[in-house]
Amino acid sequence: MSAEPITTFESSLDEVGVELVQTTSDQFESTLIPLLNARAVGTPLPFENVSLPDAVEVDPTVQELETAETGVTAAGYAIADYGSVVIQGGPDGEEPVSLYADEHVAVIAGSDILPDMDTTFDRLAEDIRSGTGQAVIATGPSATADMGALVKGAHGPMDVTVVLLEDR
Amino acid sequence: MSVDDRQRKAERIRHLLDTEGNNVHENTQVFNDGRYESTADLEDYDGLKDEARAIKEDTIERLPELIHQVIEAVETNGGTVYLADDAADANRYITEVAGGRDVVKSKSMTSEEIEANESLEASGADVWETDLAEFVLQVADEAPSHIVAPAIHKSREEIADLFNAHFDPEEPLETAEELTQFAREYLGEKIMDAEVGMTGANFVTADTGTLALVTSEGNARKCVQATDTHIAVAGVEKLVPSVEDLQPFVELIGRSGTGQDITSYISLFTPPGDSPTFDEGDELGPGDDREFHLVLIDNGRMEMREDDQLRETLYCIRCSACANSCANFQHVGGHAFGGETYSGGIATGWEAGVHSQDSAAEFNDLCTGCSRCVNACPVKIDIPWINTVVRDRINHEDQTEFDFLVEGLTPDEEPGRMDLQKRFFGNYATLAKLGSATAPMSNWLAGTKPAQVLMERFMGIDRRRDLPKFRRETLRKWFEARGGSRISRTDASREAVLYPDAYTNHVQVERGKAAVRVLEALGVSVQIPEVASSGRAPLSQGMIGTAERHAHEVYADLAEHIDAGRDVVVIEPSDLAMFAGEYEKFLPEQSAERLDSNSYEIMEYVYGLLENGASGRELRAGGGEGVAYHSHCQQRTLGLEAHTVAVLDELGYDVLTSETECCGMAGSFGYKREYYELSMDVGSELESQFQAENARDRTVVASGTSCLEQLESLLERPSQHPVQLVDPVR
Ligand code: SF4
Q: 4Fe-4S ferredoxin-type domain location, by residue (chain B) (predicted)?
């Protein structure tokens, strides 16, 4: 993957208030740990030789889920133009984990950064046809302007961080 | 409309201006500015709109087939589809599925259309709106005032007061953060406990049975994930053929509506999903027992599909751009500019289609046809036309056998029972002819107190407005008396027909004279033949039959001139907009095309002449003179504001342009008793811009007749048409 989509992705993320942390598979754990808050939940990551540190609870109770400060999940792909990540939810719980914690940390492979919406929808269509039941194009934290001013963190997370695995 | 009805309507509008106007204004303006900014970032905005439009056209064309397909897809996925004929049918099914269990809902206008909450509650269920704005309205027991931001009319303070009174929290809530946090926690519990989640759907793909939900708060995701029965309600028009077809809509919907490039979440759910759900107790349970019901609602839509005029409404993706870009909406909001469920420009089509023409009639007149929404609509719906069609249908309601009596007395093709006010404004051209013929007596008469009182009483013309003064010497008479064009046809670089619109010919004669001199100064030989009036006036009153007759007459009057190689030059932008727009619907395609491509707005024409080498040396140069310019709404829609600015620039004027979508007068609108105050309220924006420090001393110019009338009443200093500014003999 050329450097260009990453640069675009980074500046798009910046515009929607999301921090991008670049790392490699080897460095993943040591990069992630400082990003975690005390109560962290997560779902297993699909990248070979990359796993979550023990501090992350992968089988949370409802209570743990609700009070989690950080939720770590993988994201299927990202859209450089928009600074979006596509969260594909399944039985492991990507959907609740990315939704209930105060901060969502999305882990993504460098090769999964797609340039624009057009290419994303080609991918999405393919995935949906082969059984991806839930795909959420998530851009920045949840937000509302319904209470008289813009507030980050409505029903969903108030913070989002993207961890990019450069070598994947 | 009776005197009392007008009075009541005026009072209601006044009340909304006072109570909700400011909040609505502030918020819609943020959305509207955001739209301009966000769509400007798109590489091919217009191409994207074309794509979106084509997908919707195709969808509605093939709707029965796609419904068939989506049923199959959803059933293959393990869900159920219910096709509901109407609201009652849908509610019967929904309450049966819910079975008295509590329901958590995300925002859905379609569920409001069928009043799903009421029927669920009647069955014993508690229903919770989890979208924060809808929750505010649920607590306040109020109706939405905007289709995307339903509580747009409420300020933070009002919401805080409401919550503090209703929930009596330990610490009174104050900031937007506190209010949000409180609602999140309160609703979080409801979401945890509920077994039934209800959502709408912005789009449903026929090929895979996928719902696309466009949201920002995350509540729709929670309502789906935390419950095990998901009911989605959607109008049948929400289908699109395939997943790939979602792309242009995803790129357009947020930008068009709230001015965001994209909302926080575009959820693509192909239910029933398999995310873990909340069981009894503290464990997350497997999500493989989920139930899914898609309730596809007809409720008048299949009939709209058969209706050549209302069909386009079904392309609407409910983005709200037509509300946000509308000057009237910006000032009163959806509680005035809306019907039983829907609000904003396109609401006329929706209300007439899914509720009743009566519901549409309540607010249809608030559309002035200014056309500012037309370019804003992501699926290119001709929203003003839909408003006009419904207005025409309302005019034709309740015909009686005595109609012929009234009809015999008026030169239009409209039914006798039609509202007298509409009839008066619709026949403006006839009136103008009569007015000039009897001027100045006609002006004295119209200007007297008794006449003003009578006109207000019988025709609803607000007595605070000065009626335009007819001139005894019309433009055509003046032109004839001076011996026609001073540039002979043989000496001319070009030949032009100056279109004598009713206003220029009878009232604002000076701008016509200036136009003649400016054209001649640029070497053009001018003619001003007798040409029928464009039909704009009757059209704006919903008198389509009359407008169509005008179109045929205008074409007949101008065709030979065009064949002889003469350009048609138009001063009044609203007339040019007729030629370029509505005539397509009245004339054979080739005729409309020919008239359109040979017609020019006066300053556009001047611009073209200068660009093609004509010398502007005889025109009056600006020498740095400061000018405050208000273009005309329809002129802007046609993309012709820039030409005036460029000409003035070129001639050395220092131009400041107005920022409002519309001046508020909009033809006859501002004259009407029931709308006078709204019209002035809309105008006040223009007033404050032109009275501001950097504009106060500038010469005021405006292109449209009604804008000039409005500016006359808003400002102390005079205003004129830009062509008068550059008039060599000024
Ligand atoms: S008519 Fe067009 S602009 Fe208005 S809500 Fe529908 S899609 Fe949006």
A: 359-386
